């Protein structure tokens, strides 16, 4: 069974983050300069906005790493307004400058992680939303941003199917946790159809089916569905797309029509 990224040690998490950085970089590299001003998968944002956001996100996370290293509180952003202004200004850069902004910011964050003493990884820092996490949690924060926003670049042949299973499993868990914290998604279950073992998210978070080996998949799914309001099924990639509000292709619902997913962020 795939391992959750947060179950990995710091070095393994960093490898996954660097893999995500390479994926975003490769996706960006196939986009011609003239297409950076085109629409992304995020309403109101061009591809340039996505690249700018991901670049400044690296600097923001590096500030959290600096906070852990020095003990001096350094927030990710001064304010939401400052964050939004940075993104807009970055999106207005010419293509060469925008690509450089991404590559240099990614290198800056990677260096900050590399230079962080081992005893600092457990130190608490706060996200932009005010949530306290250990500094090691910044690795997954960044990894998630890279995988999801690489898909948002809307490059040909790039989708959630390119994202590793271990990253999608953590992403789906994060989404369901966010719904639960806001009181959304009650009775909503996400059923992964391409896992080696039965895997579901919702209600009690990640679940594995305890049905006997003699039960058929259809019998198990039918019995499970009757206990909940709505079970949305699909591959990891399809569920990630739907749960993050990026489309509903290739998912099905026990209620018939697939509902619009609750807001994630």
UniProtKB/TrEMBL annotation:
Mycothiol-dependent maleylpyruvate isomerase metal-binding domain: residues covered: 18-154
Gene Ontology molecular function: any one: metal ion binding
Keyword entries, A-Z: Isomerase, Pyruvate
InterPro entries the record matches: DinB/YfiT-like (IPR034660), Maleyloyr_isom (IPR017517), MDMPI_C-term_domain (IPR010872), MDMPI_metal-binding (IPR024344), SCP2_sterol-bd_dom_sf (IPR036527)
Record bears the keyword Nucleus: no
Signal peptide boundaries: none
Superkingdom of the source species: Bacteria
Residue span(s) of domain MDMPI C-terminal: 162-263
Keyword Ribosomal protein in record: no
Identification of the protein by name: Maleylpyruvate isomerase family mycothiol-dependent enzyme
Species of origin: Cryobacterium frigoriphilum
